[in-house]
Amino acid sequence: MFKTLDKYVFRELLTPFMYSLLVLTMIFLVNFVIRAMDRILGKGLSMLVILEYIALNLAWILALAIPLSVLVAVLLAYGRLATDHEVTAMRSGGISLPRIMAPALVFAILVGSFTLYFNTTILPDVNHRARLLGSDIYRKRPDMDIVPGYFIDDLPDYNIRVNEVTEAGLSGVVIFSKSDLREQVSIFAETGRTETIGGQIIFTLYNGEKHLLDLDKLDDYQREYFDSTRLTVKVNNLELKRRESAVRGDREMTPAMMYIRIEENKDRFNRTIDRMNSIRLKSPLFDGDSTIDMIALMDTVKRIPIPEKTPTEARTRVWNRTIDKLESQERLLNSYLKQVNKYLVEIHKKYAMAVTCIVFVLVGVPLGIMTRKSSGTIGVAIGMFFIYWAALIAGEELADRRIMDPVLAMWAPNGIMAVVGIWISFQVSRERTVINILWLKTIFNPLNWKIFPTKKSLLK
Fold first, then answer.
1. List of residues 6+ apart from 128 with CB closer than 8 A
2. Which of 143, 293, 392, 428 has its CA 20 to 30 A from that of 187?
3. Same-domain status, 229 and 190
């Protein structure tokens, strides 16, 4: 059962958490929409498709915003409690700092549990759907965007130019066929209009003339006048075509899927090791004088296309071929190990991001009590988060290059930050000064440097 203190701190945490989650999600979302604007606009997409694309990309934004919102909420809540001297009252009543932190830890465990479920179950599938929709949007050809006075070559077989675009339609239409057609077509019309049906664009033209020239028979030239005519042009990918794909990247897989891929790559790794041993044992240039080795030597020499003058040259050629085979297999080994590392990084990153909610409480509670409620609280939170995120990205890069163990790379930022948080909490519980603000002011404020004598020294 929760006690009065726990309920009180829970309420203090819940409100800033919800507000910060909303604000941070909107900030990340606006940044994403601005960056994705060039891929969305000019494609003739419906508003429902645009909203679906934004909603699907909202998943990874939430995965980032939730841990940061926990940190902001903890800093604001405990900063408010410290500003109003409620933390002092609790400490005077015999409540220890770990007991004061307990409600925040329970809150972080609940949020972290949801984050873990979200990252491992919901996020991979949503990322997969977002990637497919994004690639479908990228492959979609834009609808006709006619700008007066300019030739438009969006159509596969024709170029078009108009003098004016009005509500009634087009005016001064000129259409030329492209050079890859067997028949040169030139159309001039006073007015016209367009309509899109399925994967076709239909031009209806009025009061003009059409010129036809057979490029195989240059003497075959036709000129036609028309009151009205229609030109149908087939355009691929004019409409958004949804597709399904079973191929998934590492960020689109659940941990169970990635563990299956890890086992597959380990099996390929072991088979490659066996092939390398077989190459080494069958090579006549390694230890052994068995009949198999002699047969392998004769077979290898027979396959050499260039005749050798001496046995030494033959042995050198065989040696080089053997080394090339071993090096190609070694490259396969490295690729399999990189794949294993990539999947392990993604698995542990999903878990580490969930545990970050708890780590941020260990750091945020003592910092909130020290800094109290101030305008720089959110700045401190964002700064800490980006330091953590930069360390996570650096660890991911090092693990992908096989410079660092994947498990260590993903959990090291959490471990370092947890140790720092526990140390700060220990100092705050003993009411010690962790950072000497006056000392920092003396160091970083040039006005405090005693380069010139003070007024008191001048009076002497």
1. 248, 252
2. 143
3. yes
Q: What is the pLDDT of residue 452?
A: 39
- Residue 215's Cβ-count burial label (10 Å; 0-12, 13-18, 19+) is exposed
Q: Is residue 201 part of a domain?
A: yes
Q: Are residues 217 and 166 in the same domain?
A: yes
> Mean pLDDT in the chain?
77
Global pTM reads 0.67
Token pair of 3 as six digits: 């006690």
Same domain, 12 and 116: yes
Q: How many structural domains compose the chain?
A: 3
Q: Running DSSP on this structure, what letter comes out for residue 189?
A: E
**In sequence order, which ranges of 118-211 are alpha helices (DSSP H)?**
123-139
Backbone angles phi, psi at 202, to 5 degrees: -110, 120
Q: What is the mean pLDDT of residues 300-318?
A: 53
Over residues 37-65, the mean pLDDT reads 83
* Domain ranges, residue 340: 250-346
Q: How far apart are CA 450 and CA 458, in angstroms?
A: 13
User: Region 37-49: what's the mean pLDDT?
Assistant: 74
- Amino acid occupying residue 197: I
The confidence band for 259, taking pLDDT boundaries of 50, 70 and 90, is very high
Q: What are phi and psi of 149, to 5 degrees?
A: 90, 0
Residue 146 lies in a domain: no
* Final residue belonging to a domain, choices 293, 322, 346: 346
Domain co-membership, 198 together with 227: yes
